[in-house]
Amino acid sequence: MRPSPLKVALSYRDVEEMMMERGLTIDHTTINCWVQRYAPERNKRCRPHLKLSNDSWRIDETYVKIKGRWMYLYLAVDSVGNI
C-alpha cells in the first residue's frame, strides 16, 4: 500500500527535486520566497470559507478503487457532527 500524500512531509529541497524530475529548474530558496510571499494572501482568502470546528475529531480512512486506481478516502467528523 502506498503512503498517503497527506502524510508525507516535503522540504523545499524535496519540492526542488520533484520540479527537476518534471523538467523545471527551480531553486529551493525560490520556493521559500514564494511561500513567504503568497502564504499570507492564501490564508487571508481561505480563512473566511473555513467552517468553525472544535479540537475533538474522529477520522475514518479506507482504501477504495476508483476507475481502476486505488485511492484513500477520508472522513473527519468533529464532536458536534461537522464533517
- Helix amount: 25-40%
Shape: flat
Order of helices and strands: HHEE
Largest sheet: 2 strands, antiparallel
Number of domains: 2
| Low-confidence regions | none
Average residue-wise pLDDT: 84
Number of helical regions? 2
- Major beta sheet, strand line-up: 1-2
- Calculate the terminal CA-CA distance, rounded to whole Å: 26 Å
Strand content: 15-25%
Number of strands: 2
Rg from Cα:
17 Å
Give the structural class: alpha+beta
Layout of SSEs?
Blueprint: H1 12-21, H2 28-46, E1 57-66, E2 69-78
Antiparallel strand pairs: 1-2
Helix pairs in contact: 1-2
Question: Could you characterize the architecture of this molecule?
Answer:
The chain is an alpha+beta fold and 83 residues long. It folds into two domains: 8-50, no CATH class; 52-83, no CATH class. Helix content is 35%, strand content 24%. The protein contains two helices and two strands. The protein has a two-stranded antiparallel sheet. Helix 1 (12-21) packs across helix 2 (28-46). InterPro entries: DDE_dom (IPR032874), IS_Transposase (IPR052183). Pfam families: DDE_Tnp_IS240. This is DDE domain-containing protein.
